[in-house]
Every structure is written in C-alpha cells, then in structure tokens.
Design goal:
By secondary structure, the chain is of the alpha/beta class. It is built from six helices and nine strands; from the N terminus they run H-H-E-E-H-E-H-E-H-E-E-H-E-E-E. It binds S-adenosylmethionine.
Amino acid sequence: MDFQELRDIMVKTQLIPRGIKDKRVLDAMKKVPRHFFLDESMQHRAYDDMAIAIGEGQTISQPYMVAVMTELLEIKGEERVLEIGTGSGYQAAILAELAKEIYTVERVQELAEQAEARFHALGYKNIHVKVGDGTSGWPEEAPFNRIIITAGTPKIPEPLIEQLSDEGIIIAPVGDRFSQQIVKIVKSKGKLSESFHTPCVFVPLIGEHGWK
Ligand code: SAM
C-alpha cells in the first residue's frame, strides 16, 4: 500500500473540498504517517474519512476534524501548545510539525506510553507527554499560547482558561455527552470572545473539570 499516495488523496478529497485552506496544515496532514498511529490490523483504514478505534474505548479523530481544529488554532510556528487527550498521538504529531513545543496530557497510561513510543520512533523531540487529568491542565509548564481539547466537554475547564496566555486561543468540542460543537475561545487583553464552528461527536473528557 502506498501510504503517501493515500495521504495525498485524503487531503485532495476530504480536506480541500470541505474548506481547509491553511497550506501549513495541509502540508502537515500530507506528511505525518497517520497509519503509524494505529494498530497494524487497522492501518489499511488509516486514511478513510472516519474516526477509528485505538483501544481502551478511545478513538483517533477523523482526518477532517483534526484539520479543522488545527486550522482554527492559527499556529504560526513559535507557539507552546497544550493538548488534552493524547490518544494515539496523531494530533500531537500534526501540532509538532507546526508549533515550537507541544505538551500533551492523557489520562490512560497505556495510550500515553504507546504515543510516546511513536513520537520517539518518528524522531519528534518537541512533544512532551504527561499521564493525568488534563482538565487541570499542566500548571508547571503554563502559560500556553494555544490549547486544544480533543475530547467532548460540557464546558471549557477553568484551569485551562487560566493557563492560556494573552492573545491565546483554545479550541474544544463543547456540548453534551453525545454531540458537541467546536468552540473557539480567543483571549485578548484578558477578555474572552467565543465563536462556534463544526458540529461533532467526541468521546467524553473525564475529570475534575469535565465529565465526572
Ligand atoms: N488526539 C487524539 C489522537 O490524535 O489520537 C484523539 C483523542 S481521543 C478522541 C480522546 C482522548 O482523550 C482519549 O484518549 C481519552 O482517554 C482522553 N481523555 C479523556 N479525558 C481526559 C482527561 N481528563 N485528561 C486527559 N486525557 C483525557
């Protein structure tokens, strides 16, 4: 199977026609080997237009959802980015292509360890992994210029808003347990403004400031 060709087709048929424009995002999606973040038995589905099970009842998000959320982050290159929900590690690898340092928190230890091994194998040195409840953020490494939550949450956890730097952006799927909408929060001069984007369905963000 020619995975590079499958990635090119994914970008051409799933991302560009649905409005993803940021060339850096499209290039990262062409480059990062999504199949490498899946079990061998699922690698042939890696570039399909869907979320895929990664074990522990969790999923790797649909390529389009990864692209939308990444584009909304408006990353220029020098940012420190916090991701909540490492999962397979694919989204973190995309971010590592675009920003300076990536801090990613996962509550399931086994997933965090697998993702870390993948980052090592692919040579990413700017991704830092922590096991724990990401709804409390990563205070020791704050502030962050960008924060992305990759699990569905009833509201943006307050500690994450506190750990966002000024002129920072948070992207998260916000809603009830079974359906959410991508929300973008921009902090400017201490004030927050909110905009609403694509409808989506994510596994729940479970923790002190998420779902109990
Ligand atoms: N970003 C991932 C990827 O690229 O594969 C997909 C994330 S998956 C949709 C959601 C992840 O969030 C799961 O791995 C889940 O264990 C994790 N999660 C849920 N609640 C969490 C929490 N409070 N802190 C950290 N991770 C959490």
